[in-house]
Specification:
Layout lengths: L2 H9 L29 H10 L5 E5 L3 E2 L4 E7 L8 E8 L2 E8 L23 E3 L5 H7 L3 E2 L3 H21 L2 E5 L3 H9 L1 H10 L1 H24 L5 E5 L10 H21 L3 E5 L8 H6 L4 E5 L8 H8 L4 E7 L8 H15 L5 E6 L8 H14 L6
Parallel strand pairs: 1-8, 8-9, 9-10, 10-11, 11-12, 12-13
Antiparallel strand pairs: 2-7, 3-4, 4-5, 5-6
Length: 385
């Protein structure tokens, strides 16, 4: 099987020629040997496929600030503040949105503030979030418009490039755009998001309806490219450590189900990445129509692999099974045991893609990654027990 067929067969919860392994290398330009690097995802895919590993290309749907929105950014100092402040304002037809962050030493965005970024989540860095009042939702609802002009042209050109490479090299294409509860946290901060969910449910419902409109727009745009196989909804902040199951079912699950339905209408698969707090929402993930759950972690999330397999078997494909941050820093014996256990418990009958959760990062030890790949090579073929 070529890699794409193997991955799609597995996502369909069927048994491929062997257990796929998808490493999800994040901000890392090499595999094991730092002397062999790649400059982009195309070079990375060629290297991994040559090594008989699996990979996926990413295509990100753009969000475009409306043409009638006036954006102003200033940098200033303020008494009592250790760091300079960056103030960004969006002047819309329905009001002004204002965001203020502290330009700490590790601030990576120069004298600007991205709308969606993990760096703006901590209160220690953000002095004022973009959305804090009901009035802010009016302005937020008209902040973005459908991509057009050069922005749309650039996206379609990138999609064409990705599609041509994927066709020639037989590799899966992931479409990234839907962001649901993650967008709420970026816009409001964690405390305000959960407080609204508990105390101001109408405001939270309105906020998530605005985000859902963006998400559905992204799904539609990604489906137009004809090269995307899998739409991925990012849900790192949608876990039950933040959202109690009752609130998850009230706010997150309906949005997820709607996005899955829209994705399936377009003949694509729907992936959901959430890497912690999943045990209480496994049935919800099934009911929402998720095809691929990315992020099953037996160490930091303490999931029971047997229970996950029982709940999802034949209905939702699983990616993960081995922890990255802890396990891949352990001995080769511990890593080998973790890989063997993940494959033995999750792979029978298909529907399992082996991977280190959350990802392989820049500082993941090369020897740990090598031990992971070596262990997979020893037992990846069916039958493997």
């Amino acid at each position: 099987m070529i890699s794409r067929d193997r991955m799609m067969t597995t996502i369909n919860c069927e048994e491929p020629d062997r257990v796929p392994v998808y490493l999800r290398l994040f901000e890392r330009s090499f595999l094991i040997d730092e002397g062999i690097v790649w400059r982009n995802q195309f070079e990375r895919a060629k290297i991994l496929l040559h090594l008989d590993l699996d990979d996926a290309l990413s295509l990100h749907a753009p969000l475009t600030i409306s043409s009638d929105v006036d954006v102003k950014v200033i940098k200033k100092s303020e008494d009592g503040e250790k760091y300079p402040l960056i103030v960004k304002e969006y002047h819309t037809s329905r009001g002004v949105l204002k965001q203020v962050v502290r330009m700490t030493r590790d601030w990576p965005h120069g004298e600007d503030i991205p709308t969606f970024d993990d760096y703006i989540v901590p209160r220690a860095r953000t002095k004022k979030y973009l959305v804090e009042r009901e009035e802010d939702l009016d302005a937020l609802s008209v902040l973005f418009a459908r991509p057009s002009g050069l922005k749309l042209e650039s996206f379609l050109k990138e999609a064409e490039k990705v599609g041509e490479f994927a066709e020639v090299n037989g590799v899966l294409v992931e479409g990234w755009g839907p962001m649901g509860g993650d967008a709420a946290v970026w816009l409001c901060g964690i405390e305000k998001t959960i407080k609204w969910a508990f105390e101001e449910p109408k405001l939270m419902d309105r906020l998530l309806k605005i985000v859902l409109e963006w998400d559905l727009q992204s799904i539609e745009l990604l489906s137009r490219t004809k090269c995307v196989d899998l739409i991925v909804h990012r849900g790192w902040y949608e876990n039950t450590h933040f959202w109690p199951p009752r609130l998850y079912r009230k706010f997150i699950a309906p949005m997820l189900k709607k996005e899955a339905e829209e994705t399936h209408k377009r003949g694509l698969k729907f992936g959901y990445i959430v890497t912690t707090g999943i045990m209480h929402i496994l049935n919800d993930i099934v009911d929402c129509g998720v095809d691929l759950l990315l992020g099953v972690d037996p160490i930091q999330d303490r999931v029971d692999l047997n229970v996950v397999k029982e709940r999802l078997d034949g209905r939702v494909c699983i990616w993960g099974g081995v922890n990255s941050a802890v396990t891949l820093r352990s001995s080769s014996e511990i890593i080998g045991k973790a890989v063997k256990e993940a494959i033995g418990k999750l792979a029978p009958g298909g529907g399992f893609i082996l991977g280190p959760v959350d990802a392989v990062f820049k500082d993941t030890p090369p020897q740990g990654l090598k031990a992971f790949i070596d262990a997979w090579r020893r037992i990846h073929s069916y039958p493997y027990r």
